[in-house]
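User: Please run a holo structure prediction.
Assistant: Happy to. Please share the sequence and the ligand.
User: Here you go; the ligand is iron/sulfur cluster.
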Amino acid sequence: MRKTYRGHPLWFAYLLHRVSGLALALFLPAHFYLLSLALTAPERLDYFLNFAENPLVKIAEFGLVFGLAVHMFGGLRLLALEWLPWSANQKTLAASAVAVSFLISGTFFLQAI
Amino acid sequence: MTLLEDTKYLEVEIWRGDAAGGEFQSFQVPAYESQTILDVVSWVQQNTDPGLTYRYACRVGMCGSCAMMVNGTPRWTCRTHVKKVADGDRLRVAPLRNLPIIKDLATDMDPFFDKWVAAEGKHHPSKSREDQIEQIDPENSARVEANSGIECINCSVCYAACDTVAGNPDYLGPAALQRAWTLYNDARDAKKQVILDAVSGTGGCHNCHSQGSCTVHCPNELNPMKAIAGLKRETAISFLRKAR
Ligand code: SF4
Ligand code: SF4
Ligand code: FES
C-alpha cells in the first residue's frame, strides 16, 4: 500500500471503531427480531437456534463478539481521552483495546466449539 | 535538458495548475547529499521552469509557509530530507490538501487563518498599559498546558492531514483549536467564556474524531489532539454548569 498521512495506529483505531459500530447497528435489529420469535413463532426460533450450531455461524459469532468488545473498549478509551486528564500512551491503549477484545472473543470461540 | 551520465537523478512529479484544475508534470532533478524537498522544487524553478509557483520564506522551519503534500503526506518541505521520504528515487509534490489552490504548489491559506480568528485564537487583554505586568509562574499547570502549544508555526500541515476538515469545510481544524486552548490556559487572557463559546459551535471541537493525524504529522511535534480533548472537556463542563 502506498504510504499516506492516514496509515498510523490511531487512524486504524478510528476505522475499527466506525466499522464495528456500523456492523453492530446492522446486527442488532436482526438480533431483536430473532429474539421476538420466542414469543411469536417459537418453532422458527428453534430452527434458527439449530442453524446457529453451524461452524460457520460460530466463526461469525467470534467476529460479532470481537466487534462488540472492540467497540466497547475502544469507546471507553475515547471517553477517557475526552473526560479524564490526558494520557500520552493513546497508541498503547488502542492496541490494548484490540488485544483484550481478541482475548475475550477468542475465549468465547473456544468455549463455543 | 541534457542529462549528465555520472549524475544521479530524482524522478519528480510536480502538480501544475490552478483553481480550475491541473495535472502532474514530470521533471528530472539532480540528486544531492542532504537535499530537501524545497531544494528540489527550487531547483526546478531555477533551472527548468521559472514559472513554477510555490511559497517559502525562512528555509529553517520557522515561518510555516513551505508546506506541501509530498508523496501523499503533508510536510514542511524546507526541513524534509529527500532521502527520508522518497519512494526509491521518486517524489510526487502537490499543493497542501484541504485548501483552495492559487497556482501550482501555492495554496490560498485564508480559510486556515480565518478560522484562527473564528476560534477566538487572538489575545483578549486583561490589563491596560497602566497596570502592573502580570506575574506568570512557569510551573503552574495551566501555564504548562499553554506552553505546550505555543511553538505552532501556522504551517497548516495538521489542517491538511485532518479528515474531519476534508469532510466538513466549516470545521475550525486542529491548529485554530489548539490556539484557542493555549489562550484559554493563558492567565493573561480575559475572555475564557468567549473562547469556549467560539469553539463549541457547529464547526467546533466536538467534530474531532480523535484520529490524531494532526498530532502524527505536526512537524513541531505539538499535540493538537490533546488540546482539542481539553476543549471538549472544558466546553462540556461549562455547559453542565450553565444547565444547573
Ligand atoms: S484528532 Fe481531530 S483535529 Fe486532529 S486530525 Fe483527527 S479529527 Fe482532525
Ligand atoms: S499545530 Fe503543528 S502542524 Fe499544525 S499549524 Fe501548528 S506547527 Fe503546523
Ligand atoms: S520555509 Fe519557513 S518553515 Fe519552511
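The first strand of chain B starts at residue 9 and ends at 18.
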